[in-house]
Amino acid sequence: MFKRARIAAKSAAQRSTIARRVLAALLAASLLPAAASSVEARDPLLAYGARIVGDDARTRIVIDFDREPRFSVHYIANPERIVVDLPATAFGFPAKDLAARGLFKDIRYGKMDEESARIVLTTTGPVKLALAKVQADETGNGHRLVLDAEMIDKKAFAELVKTQSWSDRTEAAQTTSAIPAPQKAAPGDFVIAVDAGHGGIDTGAIGVDTKTEEKQLTLAFAKALTDRLNKEPGIKAFLTREDDEFLSLSQRVLIARQNHAGLFISLHADTLKQKDIRGATVYTISDKASDKLAADLAERENLSDQIAGKETVAEPPEVADILLDLTRRETQAFSISLAESVLNSFKDQVGTINNPHRHAGFRVLQAPDVPSILLEIGFLSNAEDEKLLLDEAWRGKIAGLLTDAVKRYRAAVMANGG
């Protein structure tokens, strides 16, 4: 059944040299987020080829690397997923070469942080890897990772999940404890966390025309907004992520809180099935969505951790209730005030959707003591919005309008003794 995978190996190996040259050219042209010197220091693996064969009973994935990769495998339930962790890796093969089929209904891969990458295989049901090994390529041009998946029963899968060793359960606390405070923040400075949505393995939405990834646009816009805010006296803004890395939703919230942020602004550019809908939207948190569009968007955004193969650790019900209650009572009014200030700045300057202030249960807005908004700056499913989102001058204009909104919000808070 896996004959095609063996036949494809030779041609894939021949692409290795070309892929390495392309990667080097991209780095030289600064098209990748990390500087060449940094990449050389980390010396990431290059995954230059991939193929998948099989059916609903057994499926094989083969990935070609320029050298031998270290890897580890974990299993996650609800829904069933197989996670393959790797060192820093550049994925240089076309996405269509690893399109989901057989036992896999979704396959994601990408960067997690500066030192690691991940492959997340969402399965059609309980599945295990009967074989997971690295072997040298017959041509001597590297190594290949071979993953053979087969169906198992629910009881056997539950046992795999229960008995495995998973080392990153405390990852959020470990990572955020190392996040530095905003540079040169002085006593009395108004600190703002600017959150670029998605990142790393979680690409977010894809542009309808240019196929630009949402994570790239949100980071570019977040940097422009942070730079603009930091030009204002008494305001210090910082990024929750500074490059193409994955942050869990809880990490984003913790980063804002640990840096004593007075505001949290999360930036997104989603897609909708209705491609004629365009314009900006401002969302605040609520335990009940304002409408179906808001509910659907919150559901998609809240799946970010799942997409990245994060293990979901349920909070005790009383903790969740306390968080929601604190959010509602202590910060919701401030969040609404900020949303209104933003929309006032946008009036007659930036197009918005109907009823542009909406609300839903966004997990990234759940900081109990930080007023927070999620700003959809436009929709990548709309060709006209996509053009604007790619326009640096337009992003600069929006950054200026948002800065004006933040200044008015801050003045109102200060006037009320905040």
From TrEMBL:
Class of this enzyme: hydrolase
Enzyme Commission code(s) on record: 3.5.1.28
Leader peptide range in chain numbering: 1-41
Short name of any one Pfam family annotated for the protein: Amidase_3
InterPro entries, per database record: AMIN_dom (IPR021731), MurNAc-LAA_cat (IPR002508), N-acetylmuramoyl_amidase_3 (IPR050695)
One example of a Gene Ontology biological process annotation: peptidoglycan catabolic process
Start and end residues of each MurNAc-LAA domain: 253-407
Record's keyword terms, sorted: Hydrolase, Signal
MF terms (GO), sorted A to Z: N-acetylmuramoyl-L-alanine amidase activity
Catalysed conversion reaction: Hydrolyzes the link between N-acetylmuramoyl residues and L-amino acid residues in certain cell-wall glycopeptides
One CC-aspect GO term: outer membrane-bounded periplasmic space
Protein name: N-acetylmuramoyl-L-alanine amidase
Organism whose genome encodes this protein: Rhizobium ruizarguesonis
